[in-house]
Amino acid sequence: MLQCLCCPAGPDCVDQHGCLSTRFLEVFRYKVHHPLTSCVLGVSEVFAYCHKNKTLQRFQLPEVTDHFSSQQVVELKPNQEVRGHLLGPASLVLSPHRLWLASVGQDGLLRIRETACMDRYIELQCHSFRLGGVQSVSFSADGLTLLTTGFKDGSLFCMSLRIKDVDTGKVNEATQYSQSMAHLLKNIFNAENPVLIGFPVWGQETPASAEKPEEREVSGGTSVDVTEQDESYSSLPCAPPSHPTWLERRREAIIKEDNEKYSETKKNLRDTIKELRDAIQEMVRENENLPEQHFNLDVEEQRRLEAMVEQEVTKVRSDIEWDIIEKCYLRDILKRECWDSVKVKGRAIKAFHSEIEVQNFPLKEYTEKELENLRWVENIRKLEKAACTLQLSTLKKSAQEEEQGREGHEAENAALTGSFSSQLGFSNPYIYNQFSLQTTEQRINQITLLQDVIYRIKMAFNADFEVLHRQKVQELKHVKDRNRLIREMMLELDMNMELWEPSLTDSEWPERLLTVDDSEIKAEKYLTPEQKKEDERRKLEEQNRLAAQDDDYRERALDDMMEGVLEVKKKDILKMEIPPPEFVLTKADTDWSEEEKKVFREYEKKMKDLNEEKEKYKKALKIEMKKLQDATKDAAEEFDETLKKLLEKKINYTVAIYQEELKITCLVDSVLIEEEMTNREQELKLKLEKMLAYKDVTGEELKRHEHQVESFHEAYDRLVAQDKLLDKDFKKEFPDVPDQVADSLYKLFKRRPRVQKIRTQTDNTSKPSKEPRLCGSLAPDGFGKMLKAMEELDAPENIPEGLKPSIWERFCHVRRAKVESEQKVKMRALTLAEMQAFLQRRRDEDKAAQQETKNLSEALESLHKEKNQNLMDTMVQLILKQGQLEVSTTDLTAGCTGFILYPRSVVDDLRKEIRTLAEQKIASMVRYKNVRKDLIQLEWQHKVMRKQINDLNEKARGIKMLRLSGEQQDMAYLSKMAQDSRMSEQVSSLEKSIALMEKTHLQNVQQRIKKTERINRQASMKAEKNLVYEQQLPDMQVTVAELRHICGATALEDNKAAEAEERYREIVKKSNLEDLARAQAEDLDFLWAEVERLTKKNFPSLDQLKHH
Q1: How would you write 459-507 as a 3-class SS string?
Q2: Which family does it belong to (predicted)?
């Protein structure tokens, strides 16, 4: 949409105040095809820029005629369209002489075209597009100079145009006009500048700031009586300027006319306002003397609000109490589970002068069940050891064997235990030998005993830890005592030195974490009224006690004369001072007498002795301070050495604990493997029992089916023999017929009608359950067709020539018997084939069951071997001595410094034995691998079949859950007549609904017509009222103008201050809103990015899907 405003010139275009009237503005609206971002108006034409198409367009405005309405919209089409800027939107500027058109955009280019031909243009790069391009462009008055400004580069670009092949007439006119305007403006400036210089200079303070002290004075004083204000307050606040403008003179004339015209009305209004002011002031004075109860207009509402506030306070207090109870309950649970249940709390000891930190082992106390289990295992081991000792007592050992046993006892003990716990003195006497763990029960008992060993090791270390922790607490106490003595000495020596004061950290004293000191509470403590009274009572007693101490004259006398002590101690020698004789202060040296000189010499001697005593005492104090500091340092260093030894001991204990835990892990792994094997064995046994029971059942059924097939086969053979006998006895049935006729009859006897043969199902073994039903259903149909066809063959017209009818009837009877016999043979053959196929399937199933039984037996046997091997091949943990190395098989260039030489024969024997054992192990591993492979394959097949079963069950369940619509159910269960009747009922109901809707529609139309008539009547009444109001409008406007003038004159200065404050608030508010909008925009961008990421995450593309 393009709008053009036209303002005609004339005396009627302004109102009485000299302002332009909006009634005389003519608006012309034009419709364009695409939105325009910038446009300039030429002579009966418009130049515009379309950012959507990035083109510069020229539109020709139509001529304005008398019948042209401002409400009419005219469609404009561009007369010319050329290519614009690549980066938009662009701005257009027309030169003063309307010959040149300049365009700038965000690409930083300035293009100048002739308005007569826009195809050609001059292009100049003024600013960088990276900094936003060009912001604005402007022509000079003569059109020969251009200025451009950039968005962000902070530069101003000026250029001059050289004229060639341009309409020089218009250019000269524009130049002359600009020169004349410049000369005119220069004359105006020269005339006005001296006058402006003579004006007084305004202060920097705004009227609002100048009035602030007055406002403060008014607010600080007493209330002002509005009736005491003079009527001159409503007069104009300032005198008119000495040189008023035309608008000011016009306004003064209008005001003077209004005053003369409405002077009586204004006087009445002033009297009325004065009466109202007096009444209001009287009410104000009366309100000041009324009690507060008179201002409470709604007592019930106040009580309701107070009750509501009290209820809300009660609710908040209840919520807080429940929150506190919940947190206390949670705290009690956590403390009971994680602190009270722990027998030895976890804590640490830190060194004084290093970063060493030693932690103890947190331990929970043995439960009754654990203690009972441990005692039960120890009792079992006692019985086993007693039995073993009885067996060993019956054996005799030679002295040489005993000596060798004593020599290798230490190495054997390390090999049997596999840890340092026995060397540390924490081995349980009931622990099994690592090579004697052959059963699962022994391994479980070994785990219990090893856990007891770990518990003993931790308890032993915790005992040493507690001793050292108490030692540190004691050392800290000694350090505090020494520091207290040192501070006393420093106070006597008037010294200031920073002392080293260590303390226990939270890790060293974790109990502090469960208590809260008053210094940690930042909030103000809430005291009940009873507690406040108790605190006030204690403070009063303390004040009374201090006052009583102040009134003790004996103590005050002792403090005044001897500083609170009855005898002078040695530590107070530094405070001692010998007062000089009185004459020293009152007389000069030359006026002293001999006696006074002698007294002064004695005074000097006493001062010297006192100073010597002070120096000796200071040296003694310093030596004592040094000793105390050295004692503190030595104690800290000694403690650090003890802590270092404790750290080494913890490392050894930790190694032993890790060794025991490694053995426990290996034993648990072996127990789990044994349990898995046991479960597998039970599973295989269960499968084998089921398979054997199934095989017995299938064997009995197979024998029964074989007997049935043999019996049926014998009956079939007899039937076939009887059928053949009928064929052989054919000629015997017709002895009275010649041989030639008998041969023709035999041919007819062999002839059979052509009917559809019954296909056997002997080869189809995929659907055994359907075969008997198929044969049974097809046999009667085939036999009936055969009998019908035989009746056609037995017809009299088929009798051969020369044959008697009696013979033909006998022949037909014999042939029919033969056909029936053949049909029976066929049926028996089909049944026999089906029975044989069924028997073959049962034999295959029996063979499969036998094979499955064999596989299960082999798997069970292999599992037994593996189980025995796992029991016999136990994992043993060994400890290498210091200096022994385990040679890597890959590092063939290892040094020989750590090797020991042995005879070659010993090494060869060991290698031979190793090879034999390795071959045996490889063979067992191969067997295990094969069995394992078969088991994995069977498990996989089992899983596949279970998945197939689940899929089929899901499909069947889905088919059962399918639902039919109402129409489908009608089509499925209703007959055709019922469907037609149902359809006719639906049609009749629809017709009734349509009739009802039409009736309702007519009623609604009538109601709308009545409502429209009523609204028209109301509109006519409103129009009449509007006419009356329009007649009263001029008088009311005059009254309002007078009142506005009066109020504006009285509150002009206040309005200026309020407007300035309001503008400042609007600027601050706008700035805050811009910051908020910027922050919200950033949050919105982040949220959109997160939404896109989650969308991509939750809805992946189709090409990323993997089809299995």
Answers
A1: HHHHHHHHHHHHHHHHHHHHHHHHHHHHHHHHHHHCCCCCCCCCCCCCC
A2: Belongs to the CFAP43 family.
How far apart are alpha carbons 365 and 369 in whole angstroms?
Answer: 11
Query: What pTM, to 2 d.p., does this model score?
Result: 0.47
Specify which residues 60 forms β-bridges with: 45
Cβ atoms of 138 and 126 within 8 Å: the answer is no
SS3 297: coil
Buried b (16+ CB within 10 A) or exposed e, 726-753: beeebeebbeebeeebbebbeebbeeee
Q: Are 124 and 109 in contact (CB under 8 A)?
A: yes
Do residues 461 and 360 touch, judged by C-beta distance below 8 A?
A: yes
Q: Count CB neighbours of 463 within 10 A.
A: 11
**Which stretches of the chain drop beneath a pLDDT of 50?**
203-241, 396-412, 414-415, 562-568, 756-778, 892, 1099-1108
At 9 the pLDDT is 62
Q: How far apart are CA 1055 and CA 1050, in angstroms?
A: 10
Name 448's Cβ contacts closer than 8 Å, sequence gap at least 6.
Answer: 373, 374, 377
**Helices and strands (DSSP H and E) totals, the chain:** 22, 18
Concatenated DSSP letters for 207-232? HHHHHHHHHHHHHHSPPPPGGGS-GG
The DSSP call for residue 882 is T
On whether the CB atoms of residues 351 and 505 are closer than 8 A, the answer is no
4 three-state secondary structure: strand
Based on C-alpha coordinates, what's the Rg of the chain? 62
- Please state, in angstroms and rounded to a whole number, the distance separating the CA atoms of residues 181 and 168: 20
Preceding amide of 89 cis, omega within 30:
yes
The string of DSSP codes covering 490-559 is HHHHT-----------TTT-GGGGGS--GGG--SPPP--HHHHHHHHHHHHHHHHHHHHHHT-HHHHHHH
Question: What would the 3-class secondary structure string for 327-380 be?
Answer: HHHHHHHHHHHHHHCEEECCCEEECCCCCCEEECCCEECCCHHHHHHHHHHHHH
Token couple for 1057: 């201050």
Alpha-carbon span 447 to 441, nearest angstrom? 10
For the chain, report the end-to-end CA distance as a whole number of angstroms.
60
Query: Pairing state of beta strands 80-83 and 91-94?
Result: unpaired
Number of neighbours of residue 87 by Cβ within 10 angstroms: 14
Tally of CB atoms within 10 A around 13? 14
What are the structure tokens assigned to 505, written together? 């950290």
With b for 16 or more beta-carbon neighbours within 10 A and e for fewer, the 920-941 pattern comes to: eeeeeeeeeeebeeebeeeeee
The DSSP annotation for 712-766 comes to: HHHHHHHHHHHHHHHHHTHHHH-TTS-HHHHHHHHHHHH-----PPPPP-SS--S
The predicted pLDDT at position 215 comes to 40
